[in-house]
Amino acid sequence: MSQDRVAKAADVSTSVLQRLESGIHTRLKVRDLRAVCEVLEMPQETTDAMVGLLKQAGEQSWWHEYDSLIPANFDVYVGLETAARRLITYQPALVPGLLQIPEYARALIRAVKPDESAADHERRLELRMRRQAKLSRRYEPLQLEVVLHEAALHCNVGDPVVMGAQLRHLAEIGKMPNVSVRVLPFKAGAPVGDPVGQFAILEFDDGGREHVWPPVVYLETFIGCMYLEKDGDVRRYFRVLDSLRGAALDESVSRSLLRHVAKEFSA
Predict the structure, then answer these.
(1) Chain mean position to CA 180
(2) Within 13 Å, how many C-alpha atoms sit on residue 78's CB side?
(3) In this structure, what is the dihedral angle of CA atoms 52, 26, 74, 242, given to the nearest 10 degrees?
(4) CA separation for the pair 86, 158 (Å, rounded)
(5) Per the database record, which ranges form the HTH cro/C1-type domain (predicted)?
(6) pLDDT tens digit sequence for 115-143
(7) The predicted structure's pLDDT at residue 208
């Protein structure tokens, strides 16, 4: 049967059926799924299994505990970050959330949300710290590559004591086999030519054997965020990444610079 015939017989839209058969997330009601299974003459036990999977997919993941504090579109990113096998990010001004120490993160949270209560600040901090667990989990830890502009090393967040501790943390965590921290020095100038804001590239696959989803580029701005999935857009950001990588210090020299600047904050 064609998709059009199945969709018509089950009284669902063709686009819903196309997304369902392609493994793409789509809104689907239990009654619609049962109708599709009936049209396809699936055995009752198979239909029940399909319905069970649909209901299970609707269960909230851990980050939904923080619904009242996360913008409606941000949980999309947290979900992608949780599912990603590899994350590559460029940060021109601040240390990325996955590598922030609690004191550094707390200072940023207080600055962004000055009107919130101390309890809400701590809940935001807890969320950020929980996200970092994926770097140290025993099974398939997240592969993280960070290119950090040297300006971020001198941007005083919190106070000099906090900055010194944060930079020493970056130097140490960069020794982990799944974490790479490299610094783009001031002397590199503008390797891309155009100004480049912060971005993250998330890659998803099954141990390199099979691509589950294409890469996604995440752009965060002061008023919102964007997700780029078109092949041309993603390839352009990979070219930008190659330019930044080529101009960045290697990991060993980057660690030395991080420790040197940390000492300056401690002086």
Answers:
(1) 16
(2) 22
(3) 110
(4) 30
(5) 1-47
(6) 999 999 999 999 999 999 999 988 889 99
(7) 52
β-bridge mates for residue 227, sequence order: 218
Residue extents of the structural domains in the chain: 3-57, 62-266
Residue type, 58: G
Find the helix packing angle between 30-39 and 14-21, rounded to 10°. Answer: 80
Q: CA 95 to CA 106: how far, in whole Å?
A: 13
User: Which residues neighbour 138 within 8 Å (Cβ) at sequence distance 6 or greater?
Assistant: none
Residue 149: Cβ-neighbour burial (10 angstroms; 0-12, 13-18, 19+) = buried
| pTM for the full predicted model | 0.75
CATH of 62-266 given 3.30.750, 3.30.870, 2.40.10, 1.25.40: 3.30.870
The 10 Å CB-count burial string (b at 16+, else e) for 69-84 is bbeeebbebbebbeeb
Per-residue pLDDT at 148? 97
For 48-78, write each residue's pLDDT tens digit.
Answer: 878 877 776 666 666 677 767 766 667 778 8
